Every structure is written in C-alpha cells, then in structure tokens.
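Weekly structure sync, notes
Attendees: PL (lead), two postdocs, one rotation student
Agenda item 3: pending single-chain targets
PL asked that the sequence for the first pending target be pasted directly into the notes so everyone works from the same version. It is reproduced below exactly as submitted, 132 residues in total.
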Amino acid sequence: MLQSVREVGIEEGIEIGMKIGMEKGRLIGEILVAQRILKQPVYSEQELKIKGIDELKRLLSETEMKLEGGKKMLQSVREVDIEEGMKKGRLIGEILMAQRVIRQAVYSEQELEIKSIDELKRLLAETEMKMS
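Predicted structure, written out during the meeting:
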C-alpha cells in the first residue's frame, strides 16, 4: 500500500515540479539569451533563479522590447532550457512529495528552486533513504 501511495505522490509531485521548472527555466533562459544578444548582461543566472515567475515574465518582456531581431536564436535555445527546467522541476517535485510521505518538510519549494540539479539529486537520495 505504501508503495502505491508513494508512486501516486511522486507522479503528482513530478507534474507540479515540471510545470514550475519548465516555466521558470524557460523564462530564465530567454532572459539570459536576450541579454547576450543585446550584449547587456543585467542579471546573472543566480540572480534570476531567486526571482518569482511574475518578476521573470516582467523582466523578459522588458528585455524583449529592447530586441529588434534575434527571435530565431531565442527559439532555438528554448528547447534546451525546457529540458533543463523539466529535470530540475521533476527533482523538486519528487523531493517535495517524498517529504510529504515521510511527514518531514525540511526544504520549501523556494529553497529547492535555487539549488543546482546535482544538489537536488543528492537531497532526493537522502530523502528517499529516510523513506526506506
């Protein structure tokens, strides 16, 4: 029974994490590429990672208004950013759901969002060990 609850929980967590990760990763990637095209690095990746989705959308809108061209380049990197966002989002979702299963919320979603994929993999492994 616990195994099936865990599987359902992980699937739900993955879905939530993928949506958040994909959107945030896409926005960050587009902003970074637009800044490169404009040769105006205003924000670093680390600064963007801690911003909320609404703020990222606003920054992207402002940055895109500065662009006259370069849309093709933005489109080609979207795929890479979506994949990266999906990986990160999936890991965040799995960690959050595993924390719910063991009833031990160590990290919030916001804390997890600023961690690297390698850090998230390590945290997921640690959390899964506590489930055993």
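Discussion points:
- Helices lie at 2-38, 45-49, 53-66, 71-101, 109-113, 117-131.
- The mean pLDDT is 78.
Action: rotation student to compare against the earlier draft before next sync.
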